[in-house]
User: Fold these one by one.
Assistant:
Number 1:
Amino acid sequence: MFFEKPSRVAAILALLALATGSSPVAAEPAARDLFGAKPVPSAQTPEAIGFYSHGCLAGGVDMPKDGPTWQVMKVSRNRAWGHPALIDYLQRLSRQAAAEDNWRGLLFGDMAQPRGGPMKNGHASHQIGLDADIYLTEMPNRRLSDDERDNMDLPSVIDPRTKRVDERRWRPEMLKLIRTAAKSREVQRIFVNPGIKEKLCKTAGGDRAWLNKVRPMYGHDYHFHVRMYCQTGEADCQPQESTGRDEGCDLDWWFKVALKPAPPGAKPPKPRPPLTLAALPKVCRTVLAAPARRGGEPQIAAQPASAPAAPAALALDAPDGGAAFPPLPGAVPIPGSRPLP
Ligand SMILES: [Zn+2]
């Protein structure tokens, strides 16, 4: 009985501390801050871990800034990293588009951070190295400067008034490119603005089976988003459900409901709290803690198993980033006002 009172007081105090948030245990940091702070990939065998909007990337490789049929935009964001399968696929797609679809070459946007994971701004997915944005603007016939890559105008093909494709900006080659990407066996789905989806549905002609992979989404009006399947043998990669066989050309809900402006005075949707490391697959802790890979060369092939892991201190001097990497701009323009995949 003697101890009863103090222990009850302690218990009540502890409860109060929990309820008021004054617990001595600090709040877990947002995973986007932890992954955003890693300028170099992990020295690990490449692997996509978790789900597209809920995971991370081991052993990421980077897309070379320039290729014969592509250029990487927004280089300063340091988001042109991916699973080797993605980097390889995008290069092949750019060659095919140049050979068959009348594209001089492709302009690539965000892929993933060096170790994947959530980003501070711009995307809910792009976390496991199997997503990429491709601009609907053709690669110019010269190499762009870094400044141009960060600031060049990449116009929308959607008329903001009608929410439909602006015919002055739309080119038939855009359908050809999206069709080529959608027909790839490696591609799981593609996201485009509902206005673009409508245009594809109207102009696809008789060859339509590929339309099922092209899904309408907010934004995506000056670029489209390609998502690859999980790679064979990567058990920690969580596949997404099939897009089925439906062409998905019934867009009524989009134009009659989703794209209508919110009524005046409507409450904006509550932003979701950022993902913590605890919310991601456990293996992502290992990815975050793994030594950095040394060297800046793109490594399309997986590293040999015997390759020694580089100490983190060495990798900070690597030419592909390290401490010298410039900070991300405060606000990356995001099309539309809703969360993007
Ligand atoms: Zn995207």
Note: The longest strand covers residues 187-192.
Number 2:
Amino acid sequence: MLIESQIHGNEPHGTTAVLNLLKTLGGSSQRAQEIREAVTVVVVPQLNADGAALDRRQNDRTWDDVVDDFPDLAGAPTAWKYNTKAEGFDINRDFNPDLDYVPAAGDFPGTSAGTGWYITPEAQTVRDVYRSLEQEFGTVDTFVDLHNQGPCYTGEGPNGEATGEYPTLSISGRFIDDPSAFGDWPKFDYDASRRLNVAVFDALQQRGESPHGAVTLYPQNTNLPGTALGSFGLRGSATILFETTGQTQTAGQKGAGQLTKQVEIGLTAVVDGMTDGTLAGVDAERYESIPERRSIPRD
Ligand SMILES: [Zn+2]
């Protein structure tokens, strides 16, 4: 199980949650020992450390830095997710299902529906960790990516305005429209991702009281092979995206504590499902009945 947090620097709650999870899993309880024997949990917390220090989405790297690393890219158009004002990249589109992919000038500027390049040191780091896990275990069973989303609601009025409940978390296992569009990926298993999401949804519903019960599906009309979720899903990992509502600028201490707790509950549900055998028995079709989020904030 590989967990990544804060690929967007201003999306902090997953980092706190995953460090809390590690503390729990490292404890002396019998359950913690059982989990450690049953599953290997690897965490890359606060992947975008520069973006976190700058309190922004992008990393801190110029296109010139990239060309220094990959001289063949001199004269190529800059990557579509390079922000010229911030002088940084949205690392969340720099992944490729081919871990041996070498950046080629003809593949730029790229698109949202295309694969990424591993031109950022952050994405290269996650790729290298993922590859080492594949070499050791064959398949990385589960990949979790922890994000924050902007304000959103469950309903939509006649003029497209937001109505209804305010979800505190959106989740998703859907990042690839048509796996065959990106080559031959026989281990791609969308149902495994759906089961994972249902297990997390159920765990948060069982808490009953607000805010942990207010979980929705992240928009499903997505095709994002350049994300780690998309690329690693093609390689056979069951994937789940956590989009906690709110960013560094929008939650005070108490609110942040609640937002962090729901991610911890969700991560614990994943670990429990993987280690107690219940995950395999989850009905993947129930994924389709999780309520959808409305309005379109940034991811
Ligand atoms: Zn994000």
Note: The first strand starts at residue 2 and ends at 5.
